[in-house]
Amino acid sequence: MNEEKAKFSLKVAVQRIGSALSSMVMPNIPILIAWGVITTLFIGDGWLPNPQFALLVGPMLAYLIPIMIGYTGGKNVYDHRGGVVGAIATMGAIVATQGSIPFLNTVSGMDPSSTNFVSGFKDAVASRGTDVPMILAAMILGPLGAWVIKKFDAWAQPKVKAGLEMLVNNFSAGLIGFAMALIANKVVGPIIEALTKVMAHGVDFLISNHLIPLANLFIEPAKILFLNNAINHGILTPLGTEQVLKTGKSLLFLLEANPGPGLGVLLAFWFFGKGSAKATAPGAIIIHFIGGIHEIYFPYVMMKPALFGAVMAGGVTGTFVNNMLGSGLKAPASPGSIIAILSMTPKGIGSFAAVLAGVISAAVVSFFVSALILKNDKSMVDDSTLEAAQAELASNKAVAKGQTQVATDTAIVATHIKHIIFACDAGMGSSAMGASILRDKVKKAGLTIDVTNRAIANLTDAADTLVVTQEELAPRAAQMAPSSTRVAVSNFLNSPKYEAIITSLTGSQTADQVVAAQDDVTNEIDLNLIDEVVFAHDATAIGSATMGKETINAIFKNNGVKIPVSDVEFLALSAYNAANIVVVVTQGNLDKAKHYAPNAQYLSVDSLITTHEYDKMVARMKK
Fold first, then answer.
1. Phi, psi of 201 (to 5 degrees)
2. Which of 388, 267, 380, 288 is nearest to 339 (CA)?
3. Residues 359, 281 contacting (CB under 8 angstroms)
4. Of 205, 302, 310, 510, whose Cβ has the fewest other Cβ atoms within 10 Å?
5. CA-CA distance, 29 to 555, in Å (whole number)?
């Protein structure tokens, strides 16, 4: 038992370190994207060569990106004050390794529109031999500088006389930042430079010997254990940026971001899955492949652990193809959407073809391996819902580790809650979608509670806060917010616990009134008199409408109901203005839908991907 607990604690510790790394880089991804776009467009071999705009490339990489990461790392530890000291310390490391003014002047003197600009830029880098972007140093110095000033404040502030607070605060931060900059200049910068070079040579060796695909044997399962952002932004982004400086692109940006392995798994569930897993797979494909939220496919793999082999096979295949074809991106693709990936692809049909070949090959291999597993897995016939399978898996994990589920019983939720926070590894993507769903439910219930999302590393402990997180991250949530009420769910996008949360927050009487109000809208619908079901949505809800449509199609099929189901945007809804049409719409858009089709019947739901109301509608048909 102690050994299991030790493994469990190690996993939580690794997740915590990974989150700390990714939380420094992810808020600054827009800067990396801007730098990548500028590089792609304006250098000599770019799409739109421009001498003036190309001058932004060097300073942004040398100064802006590391300083912002150092500031963010410090701010995560000790607010703005920590961020300032972290940025000062980072500058010390930059100057130690760049000697950047002469170098940048050399680069700036070149003509970016000339054919010799790219080779000249690379020659300038090679001749200096010491030009290493201090991204890794910033990820160390930012939090370290903030920790030092935080400890100093804890010691000094109780001793400061009234009226001297501003003087002490400003001088202490300035002097500590000064000292940290000197230490970074003489110690941290040179060490990070040496380590970066060693790692870069290691990556070059793996790539040149076609061994880099082996990295996906670690990356793919680690992603699904919520280390995806840590790997991509904490490890691959710094190394990839160094590689871009030398070669103009990097394969490392495609190792974790490749959507092919997840796409293959979701396609396999679409064709060979059962129950809700099959019904929700098409919508999940849109969210994953187009939206770039990879977390959407993690529960599908976790419900059938053999599928870890499928994503590993797909990842290795995709990276192998990318390596052989010389694929690479000019900057990180975040989120991992095919749109973001193609926007960061270097100029040239060959470059786009190579990147797409890596994505397609990964998807094909992952699909066939997943299909083989699903078709031969007899337990799939018992898999009635994705939620049930996820809950069973989480329960088994908890028992095996000697742990109990952390605060998953929503009966403990009380009316003192003033804030609801959805927490995931990065505080973006899936947690934002979950927060949006529950925020709508909270609003419909007449509550004034704010619902937000953030990275789990940034949780603060408060007794008046309800924290909602994935079951895999529940132990970390317990450590970060022990006094908060905590609820763990298997899937942010479709959890029955949301209804229980609303019931507990409102009290049973108010909750009953809400349910009764919903029933009043739906209890007159008779599917025996209906010729078509239509999902009405706006342009921002295409994914949820698709998932809802596939879900109700699956329910109809299982119950022998042969009624067509479609989806349209509100502007096209007037074509369905008839009493034999049922329009499915979210409660917030009910009045809008009725404006376009006043004669249709309506099924008003909290979320288009819910199943409770669809089951009730079919049950009434059978009475």
1. -65, -35
2. 288
3. no
4. 205
5. 41
Q: Which residues of the chain have pLDDT under 70?
A: 1-19, 22, 45, 97-132, 163, 200, 203-204, 225-234, 275-276, 377-415, 425-430, 490-491, 493-496, 507-524, 539-541, 543, 609-612, 621-623
Alpha-carbon distance 500 to 17, whole Å? 33
DSSP character at residue 109: T
- Any idea what the Cα angle at residue 264 is, between residues 262 and 270, rounded to 5°? 105
Amino acid at 368: F
Taking the C-alpha atoms of residue 420 and residue 485, their distance in angstroms, rounded to an integer, is 9
How many CB atoms within 10 Å of residue 506?
18
pLDDT at 247: 79
Specify the pTM. Answer: 0.54
List, in sequence order, every residue forming a beta bridge with 529; answer none if it has no partner: none
170 and 231 in a single domain? The answer is no
CATH code at position 481: 3.40.50.2300
- Residue 369 neighbours by CB under 8 Å, 6+ apart: 264, 309, 310, 313, 314
Cβ-proximal residues to 440 (8 Å cutoff; 6+ apart), any chain: 586, 587, 588, 606, 607
Residues 289 and 263 in one domain: yes
* Single-letter code of the amino acid located at 86: G
C-alpha–C-alpha distance, residues 121 and 103, integer Å? 10
Q: Report which residue type is found at 211.
A: L
Please tell me the total number of residues recorded for the chain in this structure: 623
> Distances from the Cα of 318 to the Cαs of 35, 109, 433, in angstroms?
26, 40, 29
Whether 139 and 272 share a structural domain: no
Tell me which residue of 486, 492, 556, 568 sits closest to 527, measured CA to CA: 556
3-state secondary structure at position 501? helix
What local confidence, expressed as pLDDT, does residue 372 receive?
A: 92
- Name the active-site residue from 371, 417, 424, 584: 424
- Using one digit for the tens of pLDDT, what is the confidence trace for 40-56? 788 776 778 888 888 88
Q: What is the domain extent for residue 485?
A: 419-506
Q: Say what the pLDDT of residue 130 is.
A: 44
Cβ count within 10 A of residue 74: 34
Domain count, the chain: 4
Pairing of strands 450-455, 419-424: parallel
Radius of gyration of the chain (CA): 27
Place of tokens 């941290």: 188
3-state DSSP of 7-60: HHHHHHHHHHHHHHHHHHHHHHHHHHHHHHHHHHHHCCCCCCCCHHHHCCHHHH
The reply to whether 326 belongs to the active site is no
**Percent of the chain as helix, strand, coil, to the nearest 5:** 70, 10, 20
Neighbours of 212 (CB within 10 A): 21
- Say if 385 falls within a structural domain: no
Same domain flag for 255 and 241: yes
Burial class of residue 218, CB neighbours in 10 A (0-12, 13-18, 19+): middle
Distances (CA, A) of 428 to 29, 147, 438: 12, 26, 15
Contact 425, 447 (CB under 8 A): no
- Residues 348 and 475 reside in one and the same domain: no
